[in-house]
Structures are given as C-alpha cells and as structure tokens.
Amino acid sequence: MGEVNQAPLRILHIPCNTPYVRKIKKAGKIEIVNGIKLSSNEHVPLEITYQWISEHKNNQGFWNSFDVCHLHYGFEFESIEAVEMALKLLQRHHKPIVYTCHELCSAHGVFVEQYRWYVALILEYATSVITLTNGAKAVLAVEHPQVSVTVIPHGFVWFPQTTEVKTGNVPEILFFGAIRSNRDVPTTMTNLLFGIEEGRSRVSWVTRPFTQEQLENSATLRMVLELAMRNPLVRVELSLPLTDREVADQVSKVDILALPYISAGHSGQLELAYDCGVLPVITNVGFLSAQHQMWSKENSEIPHIIEVDWSDGKSWLYQARFLQGVREALKILPTFKQSLNWGKRRSFRAEEYERFLNDHLTVYRKSIREKG
After folding, report:
1. Most buried of the four, 82, 167, 201, 226, by CB within 10 Å?
2. Cβ atoms within 10 A of the Cβ of 300, count?
C-alpha cells in the first residue's frame, strides 16, 4: 500500500534527447525532469551539460528538482575538468549518480585511452552502474573489479508496428547515419555498388549534410556521391535531425540494414532492425554479438542476422567479408521475410520493456537508499 502512495522518482538525464532515454519513464513511478520549469524565467535545459551544472552550483531550485542523476554518454565532448566538477557537486548535494555504460570506446574519434579516462572518473563517483549486455559487464568486471554492474538490455528503439511483408522486385540495402570514425560507410557502399550484380538491389544512404572537411578529405566519399548521381538504383538522401517515427519509417521501407562498424559498444540501429523487420548485416565488433543474441527468434533454422568477422585483425579481408555477407543476406531474404512473426516480436518487446522499466526503478530506488 505504501508503494502506491510513493511520489514518482524524478530523474535528470545527461544526455536526454535520445530514443533510449525517452522510454525510461513510467506513469506515477519515473519522471524525466529535463526541460521542466524552475521558475517563471528559468528551466532545466532539455540537453543539460556538465558545464551548466557547474555554473548552477548554488541554484537550490535546480538541486531540489531531481532525485537521481542518470549519465549515459557524450561526456567526452566536455572537458574532463567540467565533468569532474559536476560529479563533485552531485556528490556534495547527496544526489545518487546512475551511470549506464553504453560504450567503452567513443563513436566520435576520441582516443580509447582518453575515453576510458572519462569512464574511470564517472565510475569513481557512480552510485550504481548499468550496462546492456553480459559481454560489457564481463569487461567492466576485469577493468573495474570494484564496480557492481546491473545488466538491462537496450530494448526497442521503435516498438514493432508492421504486420505486412515487404514486397518488391528489387530489394533495398540501407546505410543510415552520419559519417563517424567508428563505421566505414563510403568504402563499404562503394564495394557493394561494384560487387553486387547490377539490378539485384538498390543501395541507399540516409545521412546528415556533409562538412567541407569531409568532402575535401575523402576521395571515396566523392566517388560514392558521383555514382549516386549517375545510377538510378543508388540513393543518397541528406536529412536534418529526424524524429523517432521518421527514423523508423526510413528503416521500415527497406529490406537490409548495413552496419559496417569498425568499432562499437552497443548499437541502437541494430535494435531498430529487429523492430522494423529488416535483415541486418553487421560486424562482430564490441558487444554487438552479445546484443543480438538476447533477441527472441521466430525460427532457429533461419538467420535473423548476418554477422561478419571484423575482429581478427585481418583488415585486408574485412570488406570482402562484408560484401559476401550482403550477398548472403540477399540470398536468404525471401525466406527471412516469410519467417517474420510480428505477434511474437511485439510480445517479446512488451515483456522486455516491462522488465526494462522495473529494473530501472529498482536501480534508482537502491541508489537513493545507498545515498541515504
């Protein structure tokens, strides 16, 4: 009876504006405070920064507005000094810090040693630590044995909606997202354009507008763009930031999602492929293998994913392997489509989401008790 009358827990997220964070809320139990008003002329920023926290160390209205601070990623974009100052202030104000370790390497080109320096600092202050797979938990146990880690799977990005089997004479292969140092889209896309028999597939890339530096420094990127202009089966679409629905719509209308990660921890795009009934071709770096092994499978005899080995150091073979993986995906695609069981996928995601929320609630409450 007492639990029913408890006030909802108020959670401050850094960062906040992501599909992953947006689903960590439960009516009457968990609220997100990012963006709320503190007074008639002041509010908590939706995308709060460590620097902002440091600058508002004496703002009691802010410190009274939340119960738990939940950290995710993006800290490498601020100075280590700003991050440490914010962590010290959170500790000084007796605010529990929950850290979800999404990655152990940066997706944005920050040196691994520097990124791990940030991670180690956050772990020093964290009241509770979450990660998404047992693989990541095992690495944290070796590198930071003093840390107790809870595994909560990533879960859906867009709750499965579709019940139709996509039909069409020419399957579409999609690369999605901006150029990042941890995935090689231009090279992989070029190889697909020349390595798949003409007319057997369409190849698309939905990405952010390119910078001057990217266009000047990458001959491969310029080649891809030139090929796209000449070939009606190649599409490069430049988009501004999309809503969750718009992203899901982009992925849902294709057949194969190509994910040529050079390095990674976990991947939201991988989860989105499952949500949208798309066959992913993905490399086996980071914890991606552990991530998709947590899915419910409709048919054990039909692959739900094509995994390519990019982890053995033989980098001269990586692109050939990925091309072979895409060819294999095209070969099994009709069988894969027929095997989709949308009812089972929705049921799996619904049950997983209930555990996801309950497990977060448990971690938050435990963190508050420990801070006392």
Report:
1. 201
2. 7
